[in-house]
Prior knowledge:
Elements: E1 3-8, E2 26-27, E3 30-31, H1 32-41, E4 46-53, H2 58-61, E5 74-78, H3 83-93, E6 100-105, H4 113-125, E7 128-134, E8 139-142, E9 148-152, E10 158-167, H5 168-181, H6 188-194, E11 199-203, H7 214-229
Parallel strand pairs: 1-4, 1-6, 4-5, 7-11
Antiparallel strand pairs: 2-3, 6-10, 7-10, 8-9
Amino acid sequence: xxxxxxxxxxxxxxxFSCDVPKQFLEFGGKTVIQTTVDAFLSCEGLRRIxxxxxxxxxxxxxxxxxxxxxxxxxxxxxxxKTRQESVYNGLxxxxxxxxxxxxxxGVRPLIEKSVIMDSVNEAYKGDGCxxxxxxxxxxxxxxxxxxxxxxxxxxxxxFVQTPQTFKYDIIAESHKKAVCDGxxxxxDGELVMHYGYKVTRVMGKSTNIKIxxxxxxxLARYLLSTRRENGEY
Length: 233
C-alpha cells in the first residue's frame, strides 16, 4: 500500500525558550526533524514527504535536507500562521498524491515504523484514523476554584498522538471546507470528524513523545540512547 506523508515542523518553539526552533536542534547525531524524516523513509510504500517549515527559516535550514535529494521523495513547503494552515499548505503541495496521506508532528522523532504502517493500513480500511494511547492515570474533573468535583471514567479516554492518517480526498476536502467556514480544530482528526467522517484509533507508543519543553528533549534523548543500546535503532 502506497502513501504520502506531511511532516509538520513549522513552529517557532516559543515554549522551548531557545533561539533555534527545537526541530532543528541536535538529536543523537542528527537533528530532531531529520530523525523524524528518517523514520518515514524507512517505510515501504512511502512515495513523497512534504516537510512543512517556518517560512522565515526555510533558507536558513534547507541545507539539512540536502542528503535526501537523491531519494526523489522529499520536498519543502512553507508553513502558515497556524498548524492547521501548515497542514493545508502541505496538502495543497501534494499536487500528485497517493490514496492515503499520513500527517505527523516533526517534533515526535521517536515514532516507530510499525506505528506508521499500522496507521496507513487502518486508513486504507476507512475514512481515517488517529494514533493514541490509553489513559493510565486517574482522571478527575476540577472546578475553576480548584475543587475536585468528580472522577472521570477513563475507560474510553485516550491521549492523542500523531501520525494521523486519512484518505487524501477526505482530509483535503475537510481542510478546504474549514477554510471557507472559518472552522478551527485542535487536530486533523477533529477536523475530519467535524465534517461527518468516521475516525478510528490505532495504538500508539508511550515513547512517541512530542518535544515541547527542555525536559521533553532530555527524555527523548535518553529514550533514543536506550533504544540504540538495545539495538532497536
